[in-house]
Amino acid sequence: MGDQRIRGWINAWLLLLPAMALLALFTHWPAFATIIDSFFSTPRARRPSVFVGPDNYQQMLADPIFWQALTNNFWFAIGTIPASIALALLMAVWVNDRFPGRTFVRMAFFTPTVLPMIAVANIWLFFYTPELGLLEQIRSALGGRAHNWLGSRDTALAAVTIVAVWKEAGFFMIFYLAALQAIPPNLAEAASLEGASRWYFFRRVQLPLLMPTTLFVLVNAVINAFRMVDHIFVLTRGGPDNATTLLLFHIYTVGFGFWDTGYAAALTVVLLLALAALALIQYGVLERRIHYR
Amino acid sequence: MRRRQFIKGSALAAGSFLAMPAILRAQTAVEFSFFFPVAVGGPITKLIDKFAQDFEAENAGIKVKPIYAGTYQETIVKALTAHKAGTPPATSVLLSTDMFTMIDEGAVVAIDEFVKTDDDKKWLASFFPAFMLNSQTGGKTWGIPFQRSTVVLYWNKELFKEAGLDPEKAPSNWNEQIEFAQKLTKRDASGNVTQWGLQVPSSGFPYWLFQGFSTQAGAILANQEGNKTNYDAPEVIEALQYWVDLSQKHKVHPTGVVEWGTTPRAFFDRKCAMMWTTTGNLTNVRNNAKFPFGVAMLPAGKRRGSPTGGGNFYISSKVPREQQEAAFKFARWITSSERAAQWCVDTGYVAVRPDSFDTPVLKSYTDGFPQALVARDQLPHAVAELSTYDNQRVTKALNDGLQAALTGTKQPAQALKDAQAEADRLLKPYQRG
Can you tell me the mean pLDDT for A188-216? Predict the structure, then answer.
């Protein structure tokens, strides 16, 4: 009996081992090493790395681009998270109904997710181009003043935010669609027998049952708000004058443009902490309010 | 058919088995790898592979492994990461402006170490002096010019004619540039511009295009030692004021930041009549412009002027001596007069040595396409591309200032003063001895 238990135990650990080894090697160790590196200066050929304590963090406080990146990232998150989730839900509810051409619409909504970000960013670049872009052509047909969307400080961040929402919404739609289809049809039948309106049914039945999916989607949306920077490289390279510099983009610039690895490590630690805090809030607070069947 | 291939394959296998002693002998041969970026259109990878094969055929005992490493930025990231891991390629083609970064990281050796014979010295002296400015510092040569470019002005001859200008004559100075651009700017009934007179890109790396203006105003942005910048010199402020005025005062140039990548497109679609961009776009414009176009030197302010740009060969400090020697031999071979000429014809880069322009292959090319000669003729007026220690950071300070002024957030003088203060702070450690 005991023998068998130990064997089961060993079995379980052996099965977990490959995944754990990979996680430790590629996730936990780098994160841990980053924390250590953030307290050391950047090694250069003639000046080896030395322990500098909180110097890198003090440099961060004095770095205006870091603050700008943080502010930009805040607005980028505010812009992308609710919009992409709401849009995903709307699209999912729509394509969950039966209507001719449903498959085609589903595919159309999902397409942005499949396309590589660098490629679509190059297409969006031409949408936004003054004079000859799609946006400007619509504008000139309707009248109104010409605008340089990516080239002026007031609209550049909004422009890159829209690309992110467009890219993400289709992906989240798939999760909502799967969850909607898992809702038993007898609930809809019961509701229609009771004479519930469509809006009432959505608000009181579908939405609560979708909450676990919403949490999952929310976690992903928050992570993506800090992770999606590919399109920045193509659309603006952080410009004009850092108006679209997001935190991860700043980290890349500092790490692989300036080769200031010590400071980049400190910035990464801040990003890690921010994400960890957000994850804790999401799982700790929201999860308790969610109804799981 | 299949069977014959099989037999042929077996024969080859057997043959190579029999040739074992030869292979064993060949193992004493030097093999080195070589990172290169692709920054322009065209079959660059194929061309490089062909060069490597030809080189191997002429130099028994040396094997070259060319490795495509992405964009310039990706290539330096890979080269420096490999350097830090202790296994760098023997040679890489990186931006000429990466020189100080590579020196600072201790990742490169001076080319002078390999220049021994008189023949070698003659070869090193054969490049355009303008291209050597970004390849030398502290009395040493660190890079070998390879794929180099410069900024030129392209103009649409049809639109010139429409505007009543001489289609064969580009603006030769700053005043003419404004005057021509005013005639070339068209507006619709509601006042929106349908065609700009001039477009100078300012996204990503505005400092490079700006160096055209600043050089023409008589300024040099950084010293040859790479530890001091002059961002707030009066001439530099004057240059930025001129650029800002083009859009804000004269209204002949788009407002805000102008995207680098879409500017050629705007030119093809007749949305701008003149544009400043790299000579590297020459082949692109030649293939896509549906109208006769001209290429000219940038207009003169106090003087003519343009920065150079593009990539150099660097030799890694962390590989065995015989690999370094072999890499040097390869770089020397590929920058010979004929091969530099061939590279120019195939890619649109400027041939790096004057004598390349006397070779038959380049002569017949430029006879049919004289626009390709403008870059060469402008080189005597060219200056080094902005490059300092902590290069990307010091350059970014200027980029941010330029974009702030172009988007109207800061006055040119203020923007440049801020940029200079930041550059001073960054370069302080490099200014002592």
Answer: 87
Could you tell me if A236 lies within 8 Å of chain B, comparing CB atoms? yes
Q: Determine how many CB atoms are found less than 10 A away from the CB of residue B297.
A: 21
In a domain, B96, yes or no: yes
Helix (H) or strand (E) holding A236: none
Q: What's the pLDDT at A126?
A: 87
Residue B69, min C-alpha distance to chain A (Å):
15
Strand bridging mode B382-383 / B136-137: unpaired
* Pairs from A227-230 (Cβ < 8 Å, separation ≥ 24): A228/A80, A228/A117, A228/A164, A228/A167, A228/A168, A230/A117, A230/A118, A230/A121
Kindly report the number of other CB atoms within 10 A of residue B423's CB atom: 26
Residue B361 half-sphere exposure, CB side, CA atoms within 13 Å?
A: 13
Identify all chain A residues contacting B73, using CB atoms and an 8 Å cutoff. Answer: 256-257
Instruction: Check: CB of residue B403 under 8 Å from CB of residue A241.
Output: yes
Does one domain contain both B86 and B128? yes
Phi, psi of B293 (to 5 degrees): -130, 155
The Cα angle at residue B215 between residues B165 and B297, in degrees rounded to 5? 35
- Give me the pLDDT at residue A52, please: 87
Nearest to B192 among A132, A145, A256 (CB): A145
The CATH number assigned to the domain holding B167 equals 3.40.190.10
Q: Which tokens is A213 given?
A: 């999916």
Distance from CA of residue B198 to its chain's centroid?
22
Q: How far apart are CA B341 and CA B355, in angstroms?
A: 9
Residue B114 falls inside a structural domain: yes
Domain span at residue B193?
152-306+384-431
Average pLDDT by consecutive 10-residue portion of chain B (433 residues)?
45 46 56 88 84 93 92 90 92 93 92 93 93 91 94 96 95 95 90 91 93 95 92 96 95 92 91 93 88 95 94 94 94 94 88 94 91 92 92 93 94 96 91 71
User: What kind of fold does domain A57-289 have according to CATH?
Assistant: MetI-like fold (1.10.3720)
Give the separation between CA B199 and CA A198, rounded to whole angstroms: 55
- As for how many domains chain B has, the answer is 2
> What's the pLDDT tens digit per position in A4-35?
888 889 999 999 999 999 999 998 999 999 99
Q: Does one domain contain both B264 and B233?
A: yes
Best probe of the B interface among A259, A260, A263, by most B CBs < 10 A, is A259
- The rounded distance, in Å, linking the Cα atoms of A225 and A235 is 17
Q: Is B13 domain-assigned?
A: no
